[in-house]
């Protein structure tokens, strides 16, 4: 399979020591690159951390046309090219994870290691995503923001507001375009083509992408993938259980990327 076609590079930020192996962090629908702040201190000690925003999210421009997951992945490839990064590890949450799977399928030589968190090879029937896109284009992001905490976190979590605020600040067209991208996404029959060593992370109480029927399909379909289920975590498991998720990610990256890295970033 050829690499995804060229797309504009997304808004981004780099942290961590120059010259260190690179880890790209992809956010979920409705959040910004700051979704990864709970993991940033630990990762940025030893890694060059590259975070990016989805179109219309975190102050990034809204898309000027239809969005697909493959197109969003192509934008990440453009970003890597612009920064002179030949190869990197990638970790993504939800839509960010779907982008990671698309990268691993479309540009396998660029993805050294992969973490797919609270994501799926297919996010359900396309209809509800198309309907949500229509709703947001008509009424703005308010209706989906009002119910976001219940989708993203368990009832016990008491710090949802900073993350809901990310959604409230998202451009409606950017959000709707990403809903359309999710509606058209299905790599269920192609998971065997992912060659990167893969860790799948699931929140035990994740409502949008529960372990059964989502994370387990990724782990079963990707050769030699490992699945870990985090108790007490909803859809944004990296936020609700940051210590556990950080530990899993760093152990996976240390094992699969740091030991094999040979200066692929300049």
Automatic annotation (TrEMBL):
Its EC number is 3.1.1.24. It comes from the Bacteria. InterPro entries: AB_hydrolase_1, AB_hydrolase_fold, AB_hydrolase_sf, PcaD/CatD. Pfam families: Abhydrolase_6. Residues 23-246 form the AB hydrolase-1 domain. Keywords: Hydrolase. This is 3-oxoadipate enol-lactonase. It comes from Actinomadura chokoriensis. The gene is pcaD.
